[in-house]
Amino acid sequence: MGSSMDSLMGRDKGGGGLKPTNRVTSFDVARRAGVSRSVVSAVLNGTPGIGVSAETREAVLEAIRELGYEVNAQARGMRTGVSHCIAVCGSTTNPLFLQALEGIQQACVKLGYHVLIYGEETKAAGGRGGLLNLYRQRRIDGILTLDSAGRDDEEWAEATREAAVPYLSIEGYPEQEAVPSVNVDYRASVLEAFDWMKSRGASLPDYLLFWSAPGEEEWAERERREAYLGAMKEFGGEPIVVTIREGDEAAIVRYWDDRLQRGGGMPALLVNWSTGLHGLLREADRRGLRAGRDFRLMALDNTLRINRQLLPSIACMEIPYAEMGRNAAERLIAMLTSRPGSRAEWPDPAAGERSGVKALFRAELFAGESV
């Protein structure tokens, strides 16, 4: 035990003190990777004027991992003005934020960046303005925010422009071409859900629109509702939109009473939020009804990622928040590492780009057993 501890602590058994350990330097990294020290510096600091191929960059990063090389981030930031850290802002109580954070973290680890989580709950301590202060202090290089779908806060967008901070929104500013963002094609998700339900022999569905708080209809919900109305018109059906506040069990009971009295064969239900499934399925079970057998059911998002674990599994248009987070981080870091005055070559998302600063993702169909 003593000898193991001496080894771990670097203790000099002869003198009783601590013997200095050999500190790994950038010269050691360069030698291991087979490159010059300037190339190592370019990888670590984003040194302008030195081009580094993906293969060489990976060789340097691998040498860093093997040797356990550690950069003094504070000293490097003071010297270069680059912190290699991006701030990610959102509500830590929002499950979508945590999903996006998965992808953001994956991209940052791959590209050599750190993540600073800046909870939306910090509004009481200065709100998002604190992010701009962090940028001015060179503690972060750029900002990502997970916004409510369709958020269009012109005051914040203008503040980022005035501070010249590299900024990108996930879900916000879908109609502002000047603000870089990663968004979802909500209309397409509704139309694909319609096609899937129709191919399975389902009748034209009612649309159950769950909401969590009063206020103006969000852009995403407006896109979904308008897509539903358009699809019903195309198929010659009478649209039935039922608005239910999340957690309102009495409203769910009233809906089932009305729907079963209407008759018309096996009911088909299209639900905007998967979070509304709990009460809906609970009341159906109380009436002896089972999704997929007695009625058709499909959700338009997977906020809580529970649809695959339910019995039966619920058909769903799953929004790839983790992939959106990964893409957003890659795009932001591409802004940071592009040459001054040039446009970054941003990676294309799965569904292609809408413009130079916009990425538009499509939800992915999970067939499930409920349709």
UniProtKB/TrEMBL annotation:
Domain of life: Bacteria
Gene3D superfamilies, A to Z: 3.40.50.2300, lambda repressor-like DNA-binding domains
Alphabetical UniProt keywords: DNA-binding, Transcription, Transcription regulation
Transcription regulation keyword on record: yes
Region entry Disordered, spans: 1-23
GO molecular function, one term: transcription cis-regulatory region binding
Pfam families: LacI, Peripla_BP_3
InterPro entries reported in the protein's UniProt record: HTH_LacI, LacI/GalR-like_sensor, Lambda_DNA-bd_dom_sf, Peripla_BP_I
Domain HTH lacI-type, first and last residues per copy: 24-80
Signal peptide: none
Protein name: LacI family transcriptional regulator
Organism, scientific name: Cohnella fermenti
Top-level taxonomy: Bacteria, Bacillati, Bacillota, Bacilli, Bacillales
